[in-house]
Design brief:
Elements (H helix, E strand, L loop, with lengths): L2 H21 L15 H11 L4 E5 L2 E4 H17 L7 E5 L4 H13 L2 E4 L6 H11 L3 E4 L1 H10 L9 E4 L35 E7 L7 E6 H15 L5 H5 L2 E4 L6 H9 L1 H4 L2 E4 L3 H11 L3 E4 L1 H9 L13 E4 L6 H11 L2 E7 L6 E4 L12 E2 L3 E6 L14 E7 L10 H7 E2 L2 E10 L5 E6 L4 E3 L2 E3 L1 H8 L5 E11 L3 E10 L7 H11 L8 E4 L13 H9 L8
Parallel strand pairs: 1-10, 3-4, 3-5, 4-7, 5-6, 9-10, 11-12, 12-13, 24-25
Antiparallel strand pairs: 1-2, 7-8, 13-14, 14-15, 16-17, 17-19, 18-19, 19-20, 21-22, 23-24
Helix pairs in contact: 3-4, 5-6, 12-13
Length: about 550
């Protein structure tokens, strides 16, 4: 960054900070030092403070802090006995439950990097990640077992151990997978391995806005910073008794950054209880019975509660905070759910690369239609979209850039993408936003055309790459189209090879075979010629415009 650009940025930050200071919650500390400790140290402190307190509730059973610590230590020593060492990768395809939590803490204890991955990934997705991060061990439950075995049947790609995890089914039906007991040592002593704050704790993959596979290196320091920021953020909502009896309902997949952060990371400082649920009905029954105060949610659930009477029969008045992300909530939904629950719904803005949210709507100062005010220990600017070197006028749209304690330092094994995303200490998000006259952040659009469906990110280029493998397809464009339940869903538009006919049922079959279920397009269309930009690139914006003008009503 040259001196002129640096001066421009610093001058803009002074202006932004003046706005933020007027709308920050007065009881929240926004700037505080992050202690030089690891996730391992924080968890051991929680264990020593309340060893017998319930840490995890899953499928009707309970696990205390000391029980989880014992199992995690046995797994950690099992890893070491298998020859794994600090810095090696273990890729996990494991559903929510005791096993997942213990595996995460076993990695925290040893410095082995947990590669946190959706157990419903396809074989194609699995092998891409394995080739990128070169893990020594793959652990999968029954949901991911078939895909893992298929991905590695011809080439183990350097994987030395394949292990079955009984998170769902207890019986290991796969000869290729080793027994869960094979990684559980009899030795429950704490591994004598020093973990530094800047050591990578988790490798969380994202396609970003480009669809390029990128592993976000999330450090112990970033997680500690997130956990401490979350405690500060909850101060306006929770009293001392709420902190003492903190229970968080997790129905989001822990393989997702939001679920992992709200479940495991936040409890490094909150020292509360994680309650795993699966369906919305179960979530509401759990809230009615156990009276938690915080619920990390998604827009789909909020819309169902607001509009369907069968979800309004439960007493969920214990809730004080419902955190909601991934897509904007309609104003009428926010008001209705807050009326029904008495809780405050907070919306924030963040991404996998930032570990924590960049902004969040607070308690004393909220503004519906925005994503709130800047979070503790982070700051952002709005810069011009072309060069990213000049701060735009307040109120004008531009690319959001940020820096702070939680922001990742690099992508795994990908210096080129790292250089694009991180410049002179600033993370370039690829999202377009503007700061309003009061200092609230408004998200305008995405620089690229990321599709968010039911809280999950879907990358158009990935869908397009799959669709064009279908018979007689010359080109494809994927967009997100409005959907009442999921916010938006993927739709695919294909162009036939000249003189050929495309069977949309075949396109759908190929997509279902090669993509995770939530990525599979829900709508399929044929266009004689797909629109292109002046640079001859697929014009997704034009396709979306045509779609909204009902140009494709007669297609599949």
């Amino acid at each position: 960054m040259n001196q002129l650009q640096n001066k421009s940025f610093e001058e803009a930050l002074v202006r932004y900070r003046e706005k933020w200071d007027k709308i920050k919650d007065p009881c929240v500390v926004y700037d505080f030092p992050i202690p030089d400790v690891s996730c391992k140290e924080l968890f051991l402190k929680r264990v020593s403070e309340h060893p017998d307190k319930t840490y995890v509730i899953s499928r009707g059973a309970k696990m205390s802090y000391v029980e989880c610590n014992t199992l995690a230590a046995k797994i950690a020593n099992g890893f070491l006995a298998k020859g794994l060492k600090k810095g090696d990768r273990v890729i996990t395809y494991v559903s929510n439950g005791f096993e997942f939590v213990a595996l995460a803490h076993a990695c925290f204890k040893t410095g082995i990097i947990m590669v946190n991955t959706n157990p419903r990934s396809t074989a194609d997705e699995i092998i891409r990640r394995i080739k990128d991060c070169t893990p020594k061990m793959v652990i999968t439950d029954s949901d991911g077992a078939d895909a893992v075995v298929q991905a590695l049947k011809d080439d183990k790609a350097g994987v030395e151990h394949m292990v079955f995890c009984p998170a769902l089914e207890k019986e290991n039906r796969w000869d290729e997978l080793g027994a869960w007991e094979s990684i559980i040592s009899d030795d429950a002593t704490e591994p004598d391995i020093a973990i530094e704050p800047e050591d990578i704790a988790i490798l969380q993959y994202t396609g970003g806005t480009t669809g390029v596979l990128k592993g976000c290196c999330q450090t112990n320091h970033a997680f500690v910073a997130k956990a401490m920021a979350q405690v500060q953020y909850f101060r306006p909502f929770l009293n001392d008794n709420d902190y003492e009896n903190y229970i968080v309902i997790i129905a989001l997949g822990m393989s997702h950054a939001f679920g992992f952060g709200q479940g495991i990371v936040v409890n490094l400082t909150m020292g509360g209880t994680i309650f795993f649920a699966e369906s919305l009905d179960e979530i509401l029954r759990v809230i009615e019975k156990y009276r938690p105060t915080v619920w990390p949610s998604v827009p789909l659930w909020m819309k169902l509660i607001a509009t369907h009477e069968e979800y309004q029969k439960y007493d969920i008045s214990s809730l004080k905070v419902i955190t909601c992300g991934s897509a904007p909530l309609p104003v009428d939904v926010i008001r209705r759910v807050e009326e029904l629950t008495g809780a405050v719904i907070t919306e924030g803005y963040g991404m996998t690369e930032t570990v924590n949210t960049i902004t969040i709507n607070g308690h004393d100062h909220r503004k519906v239609g925005t994503v709130g005010v800047v979070n503790p220990n982070i700051e952002y600017l709005i810069v011009d979209q072309e060069t990213g070197t000049e701060v735009v006028e307040d109120g004008q749209p531009g690319e959001i850039i940020c820096r702070g304690e939680c922001v990742m330092h690099e992508y795994w094994n990908n210096p080129e993408e790292t250089a694009k995303m991180l410049r002179n200490g600033w993370l370039y998000t690829g999202d377009i936003g503007r700061i309003d006259e009061e200092g609230f952040l408004i998200i305008c659009d995405r620089k690229k055309d990321l599709i968010i469906t039911g809280g999950f990110n879907v990358f158009p280029s990935e869908l397009e790459a799959v669709a064009i493998t279908a018979e007689n397809v010359a080109d494809a464009i994927a967009i997100g189209v409005p959907n009442e339940r999921r916010g938006e869903v993927p739709a695919i538009f294909v162009q036939p090879i000249a003189g050929k006919t495309v069977d949309l049922n075949e396109v759908e079959r190929v997509c279902r075979e090669k993509l995770s279920r939530f990525k599979v397009p829900k709508e399929y269309y044929v266009m004689d010629m797909l629109p292109k930009t002046k640079n001859r690139k697929p014009d997704r914006k034009m396709v979306k415009k045509l779609y909204l003008e009902h140009a494709f009503d007669d297609q599949k």
